[in-house]
Design a protein that fits this description.
The complex is a heterodimer of chains A (about 110) and B (about 110).
Chain A: E1 5-7, E2 10-13, E3 19-24, E4 31-37, E5 43-50, E6 53-57, E7 65-68, E8 75-79, E9 88-95, E10 104-105, E11 109-113
Chain B: E1 4-6, E2 9-13, E3 18-24, E4 31-37, E5 44-50, E6 55-58, E7 61-66, E8 71-76, E9 85-92, E10 98-100, E11 104-109
Parallel strand pairs in B: 2-11
Antiparallel strand pairs in B: 1-3, 3-8, 4-5, 4-9, 6-7, 7-8, 9-10, 9-11
Classes of the chains: A mainly beta (about 110), B mainly beta (about 110).
Chain lengths: ~110, ~110
């Protein structure tokens, strides 16, 4: 069964460093998402991406964040200068086109900023 | 803004039924979802219901939707230890974004 994969599963970084979180969506999916979940809090929408551009972004997704689909298979989330409060679980999701299309989630990347 | 609320904990005895409740505010939500998250794992879609339905059953899972009250519930029959997890309710907005509840931790007592 096709699935969304994410790497790494856990990333530890120093405050101020850049991180890139990687996702491989399901191959025929067209819409891509990043969500984050700070420990003990709700899952929050960050950004949606379609046709090589951002469709929507939340207020969390500021200038420190960027997304890219560099090669037609990977979908990346970059945080330019990490802050302590960026520590969270980051989930990638993808969905296909069609009237009903659920989002399939990856297993998440746990980001720890020290 | 839109919100989804659920209680944080539910404790049940093994073999009993678990009922996890959720309320949402966005009346235009077309799909409502239940996701399961086991410790250290990702978000697994358990089931969903379309807003024009009031009930959906899938093996041990029953979803009830009261659209008038914007209330959703997930019933797990014959709860097993493997059902221990956090259960998230999520409402899909018209733009396909998911609005999430805080999750209900299901604790199974032997």
């Amino acid at each position: 069964e096709p699935e969304v994969t994410q790497t790494p599963s856990h990333q530890v970084t120093q405050m101020g460093q850049e991180v890139i979180l990687r996702c491989v969506p399901i191959s025929n999916h067209l819409y891509f998402y990043w969500y984050r979940q700070i420990l003990g809090q709700k899952v929050e929408f960050l950004v949606s991406f379609y046709n090589n551009e951002i469709s929507e972004k939340s207020e969390i997704f500021d200038d420190q964040f960027s997304v890219e689909r560099p090669d037609g298979s990977n979908f990346t989330l970059k945080i330019r200068s990490t802050k302590l409060e960026d520590s969270a679980m980051y989930f990638c999701a993808s969905r296909g086109a069609g009237a009903y299309n659920e989002q399939f989630f990856g297993p998440g990347t746990r980001l720890t900023v020290l | 803004g839109e919100d989804v609320e659920q209680s944080l904990f539910l404790s049940v005895r093994e073999g009993d039924s678990s009922v996890i409740n959720c309320t949402y505010t966005d009346s235009s939500s077309t799909y409502l979802y239940w996701y399961k998250q086991e410790p250290g794992a990702g978000l697994q879609l358990l089931t969903y219901i379309f807003s024009n339905m009031d009930m959906k059953q899938d093996q041990r899972l029953t979803v009830l939707l009261n659209k008038k009250d914007k209330h959703l519930s997930l019933r797990i029959a014959d709860t097993q230890t493997g059902d221990s997890a956090i259960y998230f309710c999520a409402a899909r907005r018209e733009n396909y974004q998911l609005i999430w509840g805080a999750g209900t931790k299901l604790i199974i007592k032997p």
